[in-house]
Write a structure and sequence with these properties.
Largest sheet: none
Shape: elongated
Number of domains: 2
CATH architecture of the largest domain: Orthogonal Bundle
Number of strands: 0
Bound molecules: fe (ii) ion
Strand content: under 5%
Radius of gyration: 23 Å
Length: 417
């Protein structure tokens, strides 16, 4: 089943991250365009799909800024304190995406030409090109009309690679890179390039799982939610004997169902108190935000399940107040899985609920006609088994998170030396 096209993996990734902070991704997109045109001027000729992959990677080059505490201070992390976001970006790509072999490009994107370790890394030249491309975008934005793309020439051979600068000059002559950036034309050209992306089904899954982890890493409360919900939904689906195709739809829907939370401020999503009516309305918009990011980019069946995760069988849910006969089995499974996830994981305003409380809440909700009786019966009957499966997955995730943090410390020390 092809539930999502390769190019849409790029758009979903970019737009979810853009929701968190548009600056990082907008700078990423412009940088990716400069890099793409520079690489086209190289003697080595890359295939179009390779260029598209490098452009995707370049869009994500400041990904680590989402993890650091000073994301809003772009000039700060791009000029003075650049190590933390370079290292986190590298580790995110290394642990959480299929771009593992290219993660080092991001690690060294702020390192001076002469300081990049000479290790015969196959993408050394790309590191130097990205270094030039991203500085070009930053300075063209800061300096506006006073910007001159030859301004780095005096640092050729020290801060910047002479070859990368030469590629930039060639790219500007051949493609008029900077006027395309000012006119916005670069967006159309990048869209054409992304048509060439080709990922396997496994890579697509890995990108989206990685995306949800990266978003989750911003907050301890949401970190475990996607893992828990995916695992609960899959266990329920298996016990309800859904088909393999349905399993795949359910997997993508569960993974992405709260993607729209990226647009909700932490002051609301993690408020340690009861929300006001107005705040509750804002929180509820996360469903429509997910729709705006995913519509036309993912299979319609997946989107419908996502859109229905807060609906309830008696019509009391949102956003469309759908009723029982409008809800398919996958929607009912996700509703129960999401409810269990919400109750069993800690929230800013309360501790996780113990098993007996979760079970009685589920029974009550089914009795009131809100949650599906059939799905709740399975959840209640196999509760301990399902949650044991969740524990295995969340332990794996926490171990990976710790490994990433440890690796951060070691990489920081290594680079400082
Ligand atoms: Fe950076
Ligand atoms: Fe940057
Ligand atoms: Fe939700």
């Amino acid at each position: 089943m092809n539930l999502v096209h390769s190019k849409d993996i790029y758009y979903i990734f970019r737009d979810v991250m853009r929701c968190l902070d548009p600056k990082v991704m907008n700078h990423g997109a412009r940088t990716s365009y400069i890099l793409y045109r520079m690489l086209q001027c190289m003697d080595k000729k890359y295939e179009m799909y390779e260029l598209a992959e490098f452009a995707f990677l370049a869009t994500l080059h400041d990904l680590g800024a989402y993890k650091t505490d000073y994301m809003k201070d772009q000039l700060g992390y791009e000029t003075k304190e650049y190590m933390p976001h370079s290292i986190y970006g590298y580790l995110f790509l290394l642990y959480l995406t299929p771009f593992k072999d290219r993660a080092k490009i991001v690690l060294y994107h702020h390192t001076d030409f002469t300081q990049v370790p000479k290790t015969n890394y196959e993408f050394d030249e790309i590191i130097h090109c990205l270094n030039v491309a991203e500085k070009m975008d930053l300075f063209s934005n800061i300096l506006g009309g006073k910007f001159d793309y030859m301004m780095f020439q005096k640092q050729a051979g020290t801060k910047y690679s002479p070859k990368a600068l030469d590629l930039l000059y060639q790219a500007e002559k051949k493609y008029e890179v900077f006027s395309k950036l000012s006119s916005g034309e670069y967006k159309r050209e990048l869209a054409e390039l992304y048509e060439y992306l080709i990922f396997t089904d496994e890579e697509k899954r890995d990108f989206l799982v990685g995306l949800m982890y990266i978003v989750g890493f911003r907050s301890e409360y949401t970190m475990l939610d996607s893992v828990t919900c995916v695992q609960v939904a899959q266990s329920l689906g298996e016990r309800l004997m859904i088909s393999d195709d349905e399993k795949e739809i359910l997997f993508y829907a569960t993974l992405l169902h709260d993607a729209g939370m990226c647009a909700i401020s932490k002051d609301i999503s993690e408020a340690p108190r009861k929300l006001t009516d107005e705040e509750m309305q804002t929180l509820r918009t996360h469903v429509e935000v997910a729709e705006s990011i995913l519509k036309g980019r993912i299979d319609e069946g997946v989107l419908e399940v996502i859109m229905a995760h807060h609906e309830r069988c008696d019509g009391s849910g949102y956003p469309k107040h759908l009723k029982s006969d409008q809800l398919n089995r996958l929607m009912r499974i996700l509703q129960v899985a999401d409810t269990i996830t919400g109750l069993t994981n800690p929230r800013s305003y309360r501790d996780p609920k113990p098993a007996n409380v979760v079970v009685s809440i589920l029974k009550e909700e089914a009795e009131k006609g809100k949650l599906s009786k059939e799905v709740v019966r399975i959840a209640v009957n196999y509760y301990d088994e399902i949650m044991a499966g969740v524990k295995v997955k969340t332990d794996e995730m926490l171990a990976m998170y710790r490994k990433l943090q440890d690796n951060y410390e070691t990489t920081y020390k290594q680079i400082k030396q």
